[in-house]
Amino acid sequence: MAGFHELIPNVIKRRINQKRPLIKVCHPDRPPIEVTFAILDNAVNRAAWFLTEHLPSDEYFIWMSQSDARYLVWIIAAMKTGKVVVLPSLSNRVSANLRLFETVGARHMLYGPESSGTLEELIDKASPNVAARPGLSLEEILSPEPVPDFPFNNTYDEIKTKRFMGLHTSGTSEMTAILMHPDVPISPASITDVINQSGANSLICPAVPIENMLDYPPGLEAFSRLKHIGYVGGPINPVLGARVAKVTPHLYSLIGSTEGALMHMNYSPNSENWDAIRFVEVGQRMEEVLPGLYELVFPRTQTIDRLYSYFRSYPDLEHEYRTKDLFSPVPNQPGWWRFRGRTDNWVAMANGYKMDPTDFEAIMTAHPDVRGVIVGGAYRFRLCMLVELYDHLLPTTDEEAQAALDKLWPTIQEANKSSPKFGQIPRELVLFVRPGKPFLRAGKGTIQRQLTLQAYEDEIDALYERVENGILVSDLEPITSLTPEGLTPVLTQLFQQALDSHDIDADTDVFARGLDSNGVTLTVSRLKAALRSYGISEDILHGINISLLYSSTTTRSLANILSEYLSDGSNKVRSEDPDGGVSDMLAKYLAGSHHLGTPQSIILTGSTGSLGTYLLAALQAQPESRVRRIFCLNRATDAASKQAASLKSRGLPPAQVSSGRVVFLTVKDFGAPLLGLALKDYDVLLAETTTVIHNAWPVNFLLPLQSFEPSIAGLVNLLELAQKGARLPAVLFVSSISAAMGAARDVPEEVLPEPAELVLRQGYARSKYVGERILDSWALAGIANKRRAAVLRVGQVAGPVAAGGAWNPWEWFPSLVRSSKFLGILPESLGTSSRVEWVPVDELSKIILEVVDEVTRSDDDATSGKTKQRGAKVYNLVNPHAVPFSDLLPALQEKGIADKTVPLETWIEMLERSSYNQKSTAHDNPAVKLLDFYKSIVPHHGGGGGVKRNVNGETKNGSENSKGGEDDYTWRVNNTLHASPTARALKPVNTEWVKLWVDRWGF
Length: 1003
Prior knowledge:
Structural class: alpha/beta
Shape: globular
InterPro entries: ACP-like_sf, Adenylate-forming_Reductase, ANL_N_sf, FAR_NAD-bd, NAD(P)-bd_dom_sf
Protein name: Thioester reductase (TE) domain-containing protein
CATH class of the largest domain: Alpha Beta
CATH architecture of the largest domain: 3-Layer(aba) Sandwich
Number of domains: 6
CATH topology of the largest domain: Rossmann fold
Largest sheet: 7 strands, parallel
Strand order of the largest sheet: 23-22-21-24-25-27-32
Distance between the termini: 35 Å
Keywords: Phosphopantetheine, Phosphoprotein
């Protein structure tokens, strides 16, 4: 068995005397070509000399041919010659391959002589940038005529990081592999001939050719003689797969990826679980991203690094590789999973719903006339379907398309029954592929969904343009007049359908009933369609936008506003006013609406992090009479799925997305104008927001201040939003105690007046300080306008102490505990961090909400009522009951972390030495990655920090053996204690909490 570091050319050389064929290349009309290791070694030498003769040294080159044994030969020849072979697919579009050539920078292309006709257009368009020439035919490359050995003397360490192959599309063992001859097309007949000729008892093949065998009786008979059939490259159609499973003893699935490798599976001995997968446990995990759907994720561990190449394909990934493959557990069969598609195959609709098209498409493709189906219509009100019939059935006229639709309609109705109401497809939105423009497919036959949808983008847009207005109003009563009485019925019907409730009348507060921004957007589109059908011009319709709906909360009042707008001739064209005059209406109808007790609509940035997740959960736990809507602003485009996983992993209730109470908005750049949001979304925030909790900030203590400028610009943009907001939102900035570590050790609850007072010379602390100063200045400038602002200075956030959830094991203290167990020793102190004034994250989220409540009720008066608050109010959010770390050591010792304790400096020295131990891994010894941080908390003046207990709203610590360390601060917490009952009742960090954290880490 080859060692992990043994190089493939050497493995072949070592097995050169093995007589059993490694590969058989089959042709229906010729004897098979048997490829032994000796022939393979000779072929590799021949290819290597060919490359040396015809290409410059150390050069990228492209190989394109039919899929056959030459690919293996060219790959190994590239290894021996130090070149890089790039392997595009023949089935790619010419334009796609040209872009690939340019991206890779390859200047030479070799191709199979038999593929010259297929590649003629590509070769022509790639010239002169890419020089193309015929390579070796299969017979030439596998000729047994000996050639001189091509020297290869490299060692693993010398070339372990050198590239040798570039893969663009999805594509040995002791058993002989059967490959097709390059001039044999993959068809049911040729597959059957190869099975019969080779005597093989197993077949591994893409799913599509297996499905095609069902209509070829000799092929099914050949299948019945095989012991095993494995399908790769994508799932097999459920209906067709069930038929195959009936005729073969063992049908099973293989799954892998170009970026990683073939995954390790456990298989059943028969076809019972033909459509399911059971993974060998190597450290991967299934992470729930939507209810009942799990994404396969590979964390970076030594085992996974040995088995798969994800982190060599993507060297910038530090912690995990997300496959984007979705699975659902098989009921009553633990460990078995069914493939459910890809995260990027789901269709996001305009109404906020997401549609999984897997079942729908499976039912449709089981129809004998259908070759392929794609459900599309992203960000539309209704979904559409693109249908590819078999070539002889492709419609060429509208009449033929209508006849084909009539024939398919019963199957479409059946598929619609499997879909939720919002995901059902009407007749009007079925589009047939026409001759000359088939679906784009990968080399393995699977449909390239996104590329095909892009290719049909114009046709899909035209389809919606023709029918969308009719679909939007198809189930609405027609408008009878533009009077309030004429508009009220249709508006009521619109809101009833948006809220899926008939219990809505003209005086119902639709926002209190849960109408969210998606519902508002959809209602505006349908309202404009109804008015368009009535005959209202596009110029007037331009002025009807989401701000108009937010200007009133009931159908009756909205009907009055809308009637006034439609009847007032001066409002019909306002090209200079981008919102069509709605701002004046908003000012009129929102005046006086800012009263105490109004339900809050809160912006929360950075909701997917640890603190953000608990803040979201705490906000959701409030009654809707206090918190009506939560806008989660995050940079990640998949924030909703990350949020779902984050909440679930902590045992917290899911985000209330379906009800519209929680809305996710993607803000890729907080520093961009309008936060980079669409105008309609920004308008919603302006109209609704009452409070902004700004929790998003990069945590990196190594970056200079200038690297945080985008975040600082983002804070300014949020202040601009608050300044323009219709409901005068309060702004709370989540800062850090590091922003207040100044020359004065008695830290008040106010912003430091001068930057020179900062002690910490790190960009992170300075950026938080700049943020505090900007917020304070903004609040001072707006005293007359009653601007409300608060700085929330957060100290060390600890793990949760309520049920569920764990402290992130990769943070500095959990890593210290894990590495202490690996080293067998614990540090006696935490140096300048020995004062433990930590606040559990779940308790901190409650404290912050209580502070929010005070700030939003304060109307800029100090809550004591004695003084008027000027500028931003500051809250130091630290535990008012600090304890020394030495009080917690017995809990760590009791949990078996280590018995022996040593000075912190000694512990750091042993940690550093352990980094040279080959048995040390990031999993077992994670603190090695944080060595610089632990060195930074070694006291400059000796001794770990001692603690002086909190008295009268202060928490203080000092160094036991010196005049003072970096953490010798007294934190004033009067504001925090006044605002927060939770803070007043907070316990000091204790041994029970420490034991709980260790249990949840599983150390």
